[in-house]
Amino acid sequence: MAFRIPSTLRELLGEGALSAAFIPVFTRTAAREGKEAAWALASKVMGSLVVVLALVTTLGILLAPWIVQALAPGFAHTPGKLALTATLLRIMFPYIFLVGLTALFMALLNSLGHFLAPALSPTVLNLVMIAAALLVAPASDHPVLPIAVAVVLGGIGQLAIQVPAAVSRGWRAVLRVAPGDPAVREIGRLMLPGVAGLAVTQINVFVGTLLASLLPEGSVAAMTYAFRLVQFPIGVVGVAIATGALPVMAAAIARDAVGDMKRALRDSLRLAIFLGLPAMVGLIVFRVPIVGVLFERGAFGRPVTLLTAAILAAYAVGLAFYIANRILAPAFYAMHDTWSPVATGMVAVGV
Q1: Would you say residue 152 has pLDDT above 90?
Q2: Among 85-94, 179-188, 246-255, which range has the highest average pLDDT?
Q3: How far apart are CA 147 and CA 150, in angstroms?
Q4: Domain segments of the chain: what residues?
Q5: Spatial CB neighbours of 50, under 8 Å, sequence gap ≥ 6
Q6: N or C: which end of the chain has fewer CB within 10 A?
């Protein structure tokens, strides 16, 4: 639960909305005004982002207990659970600052056609967390604390591998805070509906978490594990395809090549459905053995396995469509339309 909050803010303020707003504007600026103007824009966006992320991180650290209380009120019924979750949240909130900057570098590199360093970013975080879980946590009196610290260290690692790649492509460490710049304001305007659209998706997750926190012990964990499992194919297939497709579609729109944009969208959707449907069927059919092999040990007994598997099957029903949505939303973003995904997301929540 503590990690889900900064992870969600990372997606809302960083990777999703920022990339969707930054890539089309940066690509258009580079195509029409030249590389120097594009680099100047990147410096202004980065300076403004540093200020926003510092403010969000500070508020998150100060308000951690109230955030946990609002999102998981059931935790207050177990002595010490709410306080521990708030402590973990405070430790991990600086990750928001780090991963927000990482997300901007990733968007910048993707705009320039470089995908290796951004693709390695999640791997760095996972490796650091695994190392902490295997090497440090067993020797600690509070095993979850080293893992929380590892999240921040992983964020440092994620940022560290992006910077050299950006420097090698012409970026220089010049930060400018220019909120009045027209292009920066345009990115901000595009981000607002993008944040709202991504928030709509997360509302369903947090409503489920809130309700599960009121259920017997283990319900939140079961929902969390099921959500992680269904996010794996979405990340591997949907996010990967969308990451490559957005710069291509944005570049096509920048040069008024609508036909090229349509072809890129069509090919991306075909690939997404081709890979997403088998993943959906596999998760539904093999849900129990998948959960059992990955998690069933120690306190994670057979009843929790069956509960997690049932939740996983429910999530997996919409898997192919979630993957397709990951492709369709960037198509709107490439055309500087960030409101249409918000509208469709609100309809989905209503349903």
Answers
A1: yes
A2: 85-94
A3: 5
A4: 1-192, 215-351
A5: 101, 175, 177
A6: C
Burial of 276 (0-12, 13-18, 19+ CB in 10 A): buried
Query: Virtual CA dihedral for 13, 254, 272, 226, nearest 10 degrees?
Result: 0
Tell me 35's DSSP state: H
Give the chain's count of helices (H) and strands (E). 16, 0
Encode pLDDT of 155-177 as tens digits: 999 999 999 999 888 888 778 88
Q: What is the pLDDT of residue 6?
A: 73
Which amino acid does the sequence have at 231? Q
Q: How far, rounded to the nearest angstrom, does the alpha carbon of residue 283 sit from its chain's CA centroid?
A: 22
SS (H, E, C) 208-267: HHHHHHCCCCCHHHHHHHHHHHHHHHHHHHHHHHHHHHHHHHHHHHHCCCHHHHHHHHHH
Residue of higher predicted confidence among 163 and 297: 163
SS3 19: helix
Q: How many CA atoms lie within 13 A of 180 on its CB side?
A: 0
Tokens (6 digits) for 53: 């992320």
Total residues found in the chain within this entry: 351
- pLDDT per residue over 204-235, tens digit each? 667 766 776 666 666 777 888 888 888 888 87
| CB of 103 closer than 8 Å to CB of 18 | yes
- Report the alpha-carbon distance of residue 217 to residue 207 in Å, rounded: 17
